[in-house]
Amino acid sequence: MKLLEVNAGTICNSELLHVLTERGADGSGKATIVERMAYQYISSQPVQPLTPKQLQEFFDVLQPYNLSRGELLQLANLAPRSPVEVHLVVADCDVRLGDEGVEAILAAVAERVAKEEGPEEEAVVAMS
Amino acid sequence: MFIITKIEDQIRVLPQDLTKTPVDAVTAVIEQRFIDKVIPNLGLVVTIYDVLQIEGGFVYPNDGAAFFKVQFRVVVFRPFIGEILVGKLKSCSREGLRVSLDFFEDVLIPEHALQDPSFYDDSERLWVWKFDGNDMYMDLKEPIRFRVQSIKFSAQPTPLQLENATGDDKLIGTAAKPFSPMIIMGDINGDGLGLTTWWLG
């Protein structure tokens, strides 16, 4: 067995959900235990399953804040609802984002990524 | 949390499966060989992403099976150091917490990595965080947010090691704590970490 490319890319939970659904992990087909458990884990998070287009839109909205790939990935996976969670994910949060940046991120998350919040009105994200 | 890894391997398809299309036959074998297995120093293979290339199909003498050289991609569970994850508290012991991520059960939070100051309550057999005079109990099955400190991979014990191991050896494990090829050490010492209910609103 040869590992041709150890890290050919990161995949966020929403994308993995698509892959697992295609493999039948949601009960519609025969999938292995670990696939079904992974599906169950991702579905139980308070994060809405996003299409690739919605995911790209979410990242585009956050583009001006110069977040690293790892930080964007974690924001998409965790859907923070409070400033303390954003501080956990983004390093040097006070210096790079400040309060308005954190508010903007929370607004973007609430609008696009978080689950069970009901349809939010189109919020204009304040760019400082 | 998950990365995609490209692998090339010789896949052996049994003669009875040769009526299937090569992709299906090869996928079935890859499923059995890779999914739910830990690739040393990489991570736990969760699912197949796609099959890129199938070559070969040669049948060697004395073996009726067909060998294909396959390039495919798998999704591997491999969090990076410092990543924040959310799991469910599975069990508490004097040594710390054990967190479960449904598909992965070997996340350990050692007692020195808990919020300061935390104490082990013997009667309830739970850990308690004494914050501002309040007793915050770490109840089981609660969602818990932790930070990945390190990932440890251990090789499967060889028969010689098994023979020479003493009764209390961590190598072979016991029924209560079976051998784990991949262990994630986490910490919950920081703002926002620990039970998610502690930081709501």
UniProtKB/TrEMBL annotation, chain A:
Residue ranges annotated for the RNA polymerase Rpb4/RPC9 core domain, each copy included: 3-116
Statement: the UniProt record of this protein carries the keyword Nucleus: yes
GO biological process: transcription initiation at RNA polymerase III promoter
GO cellular component, one term: RNA polymerase III complex
Keywords attached to this entry: DNA-directed RNA polymerase, Nucleus, Transcription
Molecular functions (GO terms): nucleotide binding
Keyword S-adenosyl-L-methionine appears in the UniProt entry: no
Pfam families, sorted: RNA_pol_Rpb4
InterPro entries recorded: HRDC-like_sf, RNA_pol_Rpb4/RPC9_core, Rpb4/RPC9, Rpb4/RPC9_sf, RPC9
Main location: nucleus
Localization per Swiss-Prot or TrEMBL: Nucleus
Family under the similarity heading: Belongs to the eukaryotic RPC9 RNA polymerase subunit family.
Protein name: DNA-directed RNA polymerase III subunit RPC9
Protein source organism: Volvox reticuliferus
Automatic annotation (TrEMBL), chain B:
Subcellular location: Nucleus
Keywords: DNA-directed RNA polymerase, Nucleus, Transcription
Keyword Nucleus included in the entry's annotation: yes
SUPFAM superfamilies: N-terminal, heterodimerisation domain of RBP7 (RpoE), Nucleic acid-binding proteins
GO biological process: transcription initiation at RNA polymerase III promoter
Residue ranges constituting the RNA polymerase III subunit Rpc25 domain according to the UniProt record: 83-199
Keyword Phosphoprotein appears in the UniProt entry: no
UniProt record similarity statement: Belongs to the eukaryotic RPB7/RPC8 RNA polymerase subunit family.
Designated name of the protein: RNA polymerase III subunit C25
